[in-house]
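Hello forum,

I keep getting stuck at the same step: I have a sequence, I want structure tokens, and every attempt I make locally crashes halfway through. Rather than fight my setup again tonight, could one of you with a working pipeline run this one for me? It's a single chain of 117 residues.
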Amino acid sequence: MSNYGFEVGLNGKTLTRAGLNDTYFVLTCILDSFRRKIDESEELYLSVGGLKPETEQYVDWVKRNLKLGDVVSIQVINDDFDQPVSVKEKEPREVELKRKIEYFHQLKEELKGYLDE
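Reply #2:
Ran it on my machine without issues. Output:
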């Protein structure tokens, strides 16, 4: 069974050969274009990352702003992968629970006029 990855290029130059040699994995190439309603700010963005489910680590190869006229290329590959430039460990359970509880209270306050208590 082959592990597939992505060779990602920008304007004719290779940025990365992203892929994982793990048994199970998630690999993503994402192009974002958005304008925020709050402040009208805009963003064009390229990210190449993934997840190692067995260790619950998030990995990244590329995080980069784009500009009008940039040409992004993606080729499917299956060998000679680059190592991720960053690996983020899963947050400890206590930190995750604290964050979720804070978000719960924020939503409860935001939605109090819609909730039957």
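The chain has one helix and seven strands. If your local run keeps crashing, start a new thread with the error log.
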